Inverse folding.
């Protein structure tokens, strides 16, 4: 369907066709461009259509919200650091203009020829009605985020079903076209329809890259190490990293993770009292799956694990307990009567170090302390 086709009223002057018949005629030419859901919605809108009425203005609004994640490099004023000319270009891309503007310390507010724009340090909200092409503004908004060294964190687009969908302009000619445009800019986003398709409903598209600490724990399987019976507090920080502390009575666990493609690092430490560390080692190594790691165990002669060490019993850090790894180095220091520090370096069997080859560029490493 061409833009000219859909911009015409569904019933032309001088025709005897009913509104429904004309829609059939128009939509039969548009099947290649319109999806069945849009066509069904159009049928719903035609129920009360009166061809004797003049062409009406499209009241239902399109709403776009984009949230920026701030990093250590992001401008301290965020999006508010940008000149008004940036927002004039954004608004111009959707066939509207800024009419007036006011601001306070938090929000810049713009009244547009067709609705509103709000700019905050980390957020943009655009609300437009009529036949504005709101999705055309997305590339300029993403450029604005990049210019202040921010990152895309959240995006949502929504609108009520249009009263006169045949009047819209691309990329809003159909729900399928809107979805295609949104998928291009936010590939991991998802579409939803709220309500009956042939009556009042909303189309909603959401892209969500918000990093939530509890989600980090679940997705990275850290909840296998720190279970629900621990009191937890954690932090995901920029540019990349995650820290978690957990306490339970006299015990603590702490982990610090720096994920990088070329040099990831993670550390784990606990004072949990146990006679053998093999179960804890198995869980920690199963979660992090390091190519190589270092263990440091500080042994109190009065502790259960210290007594086991003094009696030459396994404590769960020996090579027999870690069959997927080979021991490269072991150091044992006694720094007081019965107080011992043991340090062990392990690598995967397929690591060049295990084969006595030259040390490669540093792979991911874990430190496991007790």
């Amino acid at each position: 369907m061409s833009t000219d086709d859909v911009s015409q009223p569904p019933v032309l002057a001088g025709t005897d066709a009913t509104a429904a018949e004309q829609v059939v005629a128009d939509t039969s030419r548009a099947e290649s461009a319109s999806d069945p859901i849009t066509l069904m919605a159009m049928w719903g809108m035609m129920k009360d259509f009166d061809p004797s009425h003049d062409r009406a203005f499209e009241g239902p609004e399109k709403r776009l919200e984009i949230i920026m994640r701030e990093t250590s490099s992001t401008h301290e004023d965020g999006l508010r650091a940008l000149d008004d000319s940036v927002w004039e270009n954004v608004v111009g891309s959707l066939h509207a203009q800024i009419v007036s503007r006011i601001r306070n310390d938090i929000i810049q507010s713009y009244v547009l020829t067709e609705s509103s724009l709000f700019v905050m340090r980390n957020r943009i909200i655009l609300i437009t009605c009529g036949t504005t092409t709101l999705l055309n503004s997305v590339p300029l908004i993403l450029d604005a985020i990049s210019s202040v060294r921010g990152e895309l964190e959240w995006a949502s687009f929504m609108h009520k079903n249009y009263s006169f969908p045949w009047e819209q302009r691309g990329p809003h000619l159909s729900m399928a076209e809107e979805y295609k445009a949104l998928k291009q800019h936010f590939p991991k986003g998802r579409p939803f329809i709220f309500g009956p398709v042939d009556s009042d409903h909303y189309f909603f598209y959401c892209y969500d890259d918000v990093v939530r600490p509890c989600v980090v724990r679940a997705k990275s399987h850290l909840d296998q190490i720190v279970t629900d019976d621990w009191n937890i507090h954690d932090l995901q920080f920029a540019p990349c990293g995650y820290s978690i502390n957990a306490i339970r009575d006299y015990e603590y666990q702490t982990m610090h993770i720096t994920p990088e493609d070329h040099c990831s690092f993670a550390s784990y430490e606990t004072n949990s009292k146990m006679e053998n560390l093999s179960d804890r080692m198995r869980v920690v190594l199963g979660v992090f799956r390091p190519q190589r790691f270092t263990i440091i165990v500080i042994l109190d002669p009065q502790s259960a694990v210290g007594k086991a060490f003094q009696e030459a019993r396994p404590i769960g850090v020996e090579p027999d307990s870690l069959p997927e790894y080979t021991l490269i180095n072991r150091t044992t220091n006694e720094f007081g009567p019965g107080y011992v520090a043991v340090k062990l370096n392990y690598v995967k069997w397929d690591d060049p170090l295990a084969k006595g080859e030259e040390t490669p560029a540093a792979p991911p490493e874990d430190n496991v302390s007790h």
Observations:
- The chain has a mean pLDDT of 81.
- The longest strand covers residues 325-336.
- Residues 301 and 310 are 7 Å apart (CA to CA).
- The radius of gyration is 31 Å.
